[in-house]
């Protein structure tokens, strides 16, 4: 939750960075003035979590009502399951996240978490239940410690470091000139796209939400870094009972999802497991899969290593 006690220069830099990217939903929500259109219901109750089941029911949404982006989207993610959303650029994958966070309300339809309409729950409890590892994390102009602990500034140092270890960024931090006190961001040390994403992962581990949304980074990461980040995420999720949503460009990274949702022109055109979709004759997913696999220069050597879990 937004803290008025933050120094103003810090807020200024936050605002500049946040205009472009989804770094932290709570702050962005407040600073961008979106709350003018989103109102917490006067009878709003705290979200009661019972495992993190997510349900979209006939959701229609466009940033401009005459240009719908989502045109009747329905799906359910049972608690503890992993769902992937795939589809062409601009089809509305990140928009699903913004709706789940209630940056915007759908023009039609409803979204439920554990059976509670998100319109009826307190916004802070809704947002506290969802963690995001965004596509492109902008860092605050502050220490790396602050960047990880952000949103949980009262967390023990041990917990912050343990989250950094689990996100496999601790060793990198210890090699920086001032370790956790090293300043990063626009006016500090620049760190790589993969490292930034691991900072975002550490932040999410620290927050420990029941629902996690991963917006896959593609261009920022080389294949090796991407694979190691994905294996970190997999081990993080294993046995955790967290509900997760993955927005993915590289299909190989989500082939192990419990369910894959293929979005196109505002609707779900295919849905199922990788094994099912890849066998579908004339299937869109099947087509995307083989196109990507053929164009991947590492395809032949990696093919043997690649195992669906
Ligand atoms: P990508 O794969 O490239 O990340 P995406 O599937 O996540 O894309 P969204 O970011 O959800 O796509 O955007 C869906 C559509 O909505 C796009 O056409 C985009 O231009 C438009 N859009 C996104 N944000 C806004 C906004 N704030 N105002 C108006 N239009 C927007």
UniProtKB/TrEMBL annotation:
Cellular localization per UniProt: Mitochondrion inner membrane
GO biological process, one term: intracellular iron ion homeostasis
GO cellular component, one term: mitochondrial inner membrane
Keyword line: ATP-binding, Membrane, Nucleotide-binding, Translocase, Transmembrane, Transmembrane helix, Transport
GO molecular-function terms, A-Z: ABC-type transporter activity; ATP binding; ATP hydrolysis activity
Major localisation: mitochondrion
Domain (ABC transporter): residue spans on this chain: 54-290
Subunit structure: Homodimer.
The family this protein is said to belong to: Belongs to the ABC transporter superfamily. ABCB family. Heavy Metal importer (TC 3.A.1.210) subfamily.
Protein name in UniProt: Iron-sulfur clusters transporter ATM1, mitochondrial
Organism this protein belongs to: Funneliformis caledonium
